[in-house]
Amino acid sequence: MKPTFVVLTDLSPGAARAAHVAALLAAAAGAELVLLHLEAEPVVEPEFGLLPLPAHYLDQQQRDTVAALAALARSLAAPVRVQPNRGGLHDTLQLVIRRQMPLLLVLGLAPEHALIDQLLYSYALPVLRATHLPLLLVPAAGLPEEAQLPRQVALAIDGERFQLSAASCRVAALVESWQAEYTVVHVAPPDGPTLNMHDVVTTAHDGGLLSARVISSSTYQLRHAVCGAGLVQAVVDTQADLLVLVARPRSFLDELFHRSATAEVLPRSPVPVLLLPAAAVAAPTAARQAADGLLY
Asked: Is 284 contained in some domain?
């Protein structure tokens, strides 16, 4: 069975750009795309409730959507299937995930909180929070017209222990197949201590973000008052064309558009951001002391 990438699209230019990036990655992985159309919810007015739209308008809108999705599918450099969105985004996405078991979810980012952001937060997040699928977020602008496989990958590491989920390990292996150059990045506070970057790289290896096959990687540490802004600066400084973030269980997705470092990165990143969920890791316990050959 071919691996599958699910692309959420509202047929905007930014979403189309995300679909083209996903197709490039899917072609390299021998995967196929599933296009899932995001539709606006019915208009609700406080005084009148649900406002019905004329049937002829809905029919024409449906025909236009089908034609636009078909045109987008034909323009992509990978096998594509179009998934009808029946029964609402939450139910449809849940059905697609259950049946297709996708390797990756792909979404275009708008410069402002547009429909695609609203639908993601309101309807997709409950499903994603439960499944912890890796998520690729593609900016609407800043990418070259002819997208290429990433050659410079920035791995953002905060120094804390983590362990990638099984799904994230599969995507991390896919990234390695591109034979890109890796830079392990850390943002330190302006007045706080810096980290030993050798230890940071070891954390990346232990957590599954860098496998034993990656023999060498460079490191880059900078100081910045705002972690997210520092990561964006690190992307520019290292000339990275992909930023990889580890999404820990305590903050995965429900803080994407709020107060996490991830939320600070997403509106500003000039390159795609790959979110790899981590599994829960038990806090290290103090080593027990041995006395008379017994552990206490």
From this structure: no
